[in-house]
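queue> holo job accepted (NAP)
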Amino acid sequence: MSNGIQDKVVFITGASSGLGAETARHLAERGARIAIAARRKDKLDDVVRQITAAGGEARAYSLDVTDKVQVKDVVDAVIDDFGRLDVIVNNAGLMPIRPMVEVNTDEWDAMIDVNIKGVLYGIAAALPVFVAQQSGHVINLSSVAGIKVFAPGGTVYSGTKFAVRAISDGLRQEVGAHIRVTSIQPGAVDSELKFSTSGTAADNVLDFYKIAIPASSVARAVAFAIEQPAEVDVNEIVLRPTAQEF
Ligand SMILES: NC(=O)c1ccc[n+]([C@@H]2O[C@H](COP(=O)([O-])OP(=O)(O)OC[C@H]3O[C@@H](n4cnc5c(N)ncnc54)[C@H](OP(=O)(O)O)[C@@H]3O)[C@@H](O)[C@H]2O)c1
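queue> job finished
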């Protein structure tokens, strides 16, 4: 009997490290057919090797999610290679924490381009496919910072994660009759994300992440959303370290 994950084709962006890589390994163990994308192809190839060595199926695709043409081309390539697409996990993201008064518009641009536009480009590429097949599942990575503003320092990051949560719920209202939409909202999870902060807030971020829980906690949350029967749409999952207040 199907476990709700077996044989599903799952495409994950930002899977060269952290939550994306761990989710790829976890879903592959549960029988999903995995397509992973990011800019660092060597890291993706390592993940593919780990999955195939464990008996799973995976392929890697070089991708910068800020380029909508590339995102569409890669999603098309995944469908060519695997024959279908069942789930897209829009996970690529970055979190340069810095007080607003230190004005760094390059970091603001990067967060908007990757955390918001990257998610929209993923949706743009997958949605026509899901509409045509009358099924599919969009899973977006928001954050607890998408529920409560994380300030000072995380104001723009929170803005992007509020946007991801809003876009997820709006998409669900628009296409929810056949297509499932899930927003995952984690607290501090161990990954490379903490290193995307440089400058004055770097030490505080590393300190905050001392209580981080493993990436496998998010991988299991993603699996939970996917494995539900088709008529059950898990819309939001919030998880954080037991010890985390924010
Ligand atoms: N860790 C946490 O505490 C936490 C909490 C809440 C939400 N999240 C969210 O979870 C998601 C994954 O983060 P993580 O914690 O796993 O961090 P991570 O280890 O730093 O992973 C981020 C991933 O995003 C990819 N990426 C960044 N820019 C990209 C671009 N332009 N094009 C394609 N891929 C890009 C990176 O790959 P390349 O550098 O190889 O491109 C990497 O694979 C993010 O959206 C983050 O905001 C994380």
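queue> The CA atoms of residues 50 and 57 lie 10 Å apart.
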